[in-house]
Design goal:
The protein has a single domain, classed as Rossmann fold. The protein contains seven helices and ten strands. Strands 1, 2, 3, 4, 5, 6, 7, 8, 9 and 10 form a ten-stranded mixed sheet that branches. Helix 2 packs parallel to helix 5 and helix 4 crosses helix 5.
C-alpha cells in the first residue's frame, strides 16, 4: 500500500554538511560525488571552484536564488536525469542573504529591528521553505566555512570547530542532514588534511551511518581518493 524505502548505495545520495577553513578542500571533496554519468550541480555564491571542472549555477542574492529554485523545480525530471546531487557553496552566504532580503522587504536595516523576534522568524521560515524545496528535488550537500566555539569540558574551556551559520540556519541544516563533516588543515605531523566525521573535542561532526564515523586522510595529490574511501566504507565494500 505504501512504498518501501530503498537502502542508499551511494554516499552522494545522502544529505550532508561539509565545513572547513577557506582553501582546505571543501569544494574539491564535494565535486567527487559522481553516480554513474551523473555529476553534482553546484549552486555557487562565490567563485571558489578554482581549477575544478564542475556544473554550476552562480547566484548573487536571495531573490536570484529563489528564481533558480523555481527553475529547477520546473525542470525537475531533467535535473534528476542529469545530476547526482546539489551542492550549495556557501550555505552561510544564503543564510545572510535571506536575512538581508527579509529586512529589505520590511523596510528595516536588519531583521533584529523588527520587534518581538519577528524578523528572525520570517527569515527562518523563508530559509526553511526554499531549502526544503531543493532537498525534496535531490540530495543536497551544504558547504560552510568553519568557526570556533568555546565549550567547557570538565571545568576546562576548549575551542571546538563549528560551522559558521546563524542559529536558525544551523538548526535547520543539522536537523536535515545525514552527516556533518569537518576538513582539518594539513598539520606538521602528517602534512595532510583529514576529513573528520567522528565527533570529538576538536570539531562538531557525526553521521547517522555508523560505518563512516571515522577520520579519513585527504591526500593533496589524490583528492578524489578520500571520497572513494568514504564511499566504499559507506557501501560496506572497503577491502
Amino acid at each position: 500500500m505504501f512504498p518501501i524505502t530503498q537502502t542508499k548505495t551511494e554516499f552522494a545520495l545522502t544529505h550532508k554538511l561539509i565545513y572547513a577553513w577557506p582553501k582546505v578542500g571543501k569544494t574539491t571533496l564535494a565535486a567527487q560525488q559522481k553516480v554513474g554519468s551523473k555529476i553534482p550541480l553546484f549552486i555557487m555564491t562565490e567563485d571558489g571552484e578554482g581549477t575544478l571542472t564542475i556544473a554550476k549555477a552562480r547566484v548573487k542574492d536571495w531573490k536570484h536564488f529563489t528564481k533558480l529554485v523555481e527553475l529547477l523545480e520546473k525542470q525537475a525530471e531533467k535535473v534528476k536525469e542529469t545530476y547526482s546531487c546539489l551542492v550549495i557553496d556557501l550555505i552561510s552566504d544564503l543564510d545572510q542573504w535571506c536575512q538581508e532580503s527579509i529586512a529589505k522587504d520590511n523596510n528595516v536595516k536588519h531583521v533584529s529591528d523588527l520587534s518581538y523576534g519577528k524578523g528572525f522568524n520570517l527569515a527562518k521560515e523563508e530559509f526553511r521553505s526554499q531549502l526544503s524545496k531543493l532537498m525534496a528535488l535531490l540530495p543536497v550537500t551544504f558547504i560552510a566555512h568553519s568557526g570556533e566555539k568555546d565549550v567547557i569540558v570538565n571545568g576546562e574551556t576548549i575551542k571546538v570547530q563549528k560551522p559558521q551559520l546563524s542559529t536558525g540556519a544551523y538548526d535547520f541544516v543539522n536537523g536535515k542532514v545525514d552527516t556533518i563533516m569537518y576538513i582539518s588543515p594539513a598539520n606538521s605531523k602528517k602534512d595532510q588534511s583529514e576529513v573528520v566525521i567522528q565527533g570529538s573535542k576538536m570539531a562538531i561532526c557525526g553521521s547517522r551511518f555508523p560505518q563512516i564515523n571515522d577520520t579519513f586522510l585527504f591526500p593533496k595529490d589524490r583528492p578524489e581518493q578520500v571520497y572513494v574511501d568514504i564511499n566504499n566504507r559507506f557501501k560496506g565494500s572497503e577491502q
